[in-house]
Amino acid sequence: MTLRPCPHEKEVVALLARGHYPQACPAELRTHVSACRSCADLALVTRAFQTARTESAAAAHLASPGLLWWRAQLRRRNAAVERIGKPILGAQIFALSVSLLFAAVFLATQATHGLRWLSWLQQLQKTQFPQASSLHLEALWPSTLIHSGWSPMVLIPILATLALLSGVVIYLASEKQ
Amino acid sequence: MDTMDSDAFAGFYQRSARPLWAYLARVSGDPALADDLMQESYVRYLCAALPASYATEGEVAARRYLFRIATNLLRDHWRRPRPTSIDDLPEELFAATSNSAQADSQAILGPALAQMRPRDRQLLWLAHAEGYSHREIADVTGLASASIRLLLFRARRKIARLLQNQNQTQLRLQTQQAALENTTSAPTQRSQP
Fold first, then answer.
1. Are A54 and A69 part of one and the same domain?
2. Which chain A residues contact residue B126 at CB under 8 A?
3. What is the pLDDT at residue B1?
4. N or C, which end of chain B is more exposed by having fewer CB within 10 Å?
């Protein structure tokens, strides 16, 4: 298939666009269109499409522009809220990560100091309250905890951190919902 | 970058909605889909900022931008996997909701359009129904401006052949029907005194 534009094509297109073809078309151009395959195709197709456009446009059932305007406003607002929410969520994640890091460092230092505190407490108890030397603090803790080797001074901050984190997670989840 | 106000949009909608619906309905072959896509096109149009060419070309640019959104939505619809293809939809679906004049036009153009590829339908509609230039069609469809001419030429030749065949078939049927009517009415005329 070769692409050879007819020199009269622009003229025919202009007449078709104005709706002047074939009534207001010069006789010689009409003769040319009937003889030229390219122009004949152009005229046939354009007239068929123009008719279809007029008829389809008349059959359209249009929604109210106000409704579309309102829907667009709603979508815009939601997009804006989402756009604003993104940095806030990032900041929350960052704050949570920093808190977790600090908690881990704190727990690590407390784990080493915890045992010292215990010995210091026992020493204090022996020197300041010698009458209470029979007082055994470990008796207050559950036996399973003592046998597992976990120090209560380590366990309490862990539980406190877990409670704090679950609170944060619940808050974030409810906010997202 | 600017957006329209409510009143300006109402005016623009009144002027552009019917041609846009005609484009979507004829290219997709599904008026219900055209309704949905048209609404979505306007909502997206309003959510987006107006094109830069709006300042110089005004509503022409806005209209072209709207057709571009609609074309992209149509393309997305065709790409989306679904149980039935839009090309397999029966033509009766469209003809059922049309009046007699529209049915005539649909009877001529509908079967021919149904045999064309979706992209060719878009190109043909934009060029011959909307009167867009090759550059404008390239802007709307996202195709290269240089390839529009060739694609359009091929599509036009193909649909012209289909329309001619259809016209010839219709003409032959009409001739046969007229001949049949003549043969049935002739004995009754002869039998009259």
1. no
2. none
3. 45
4. C
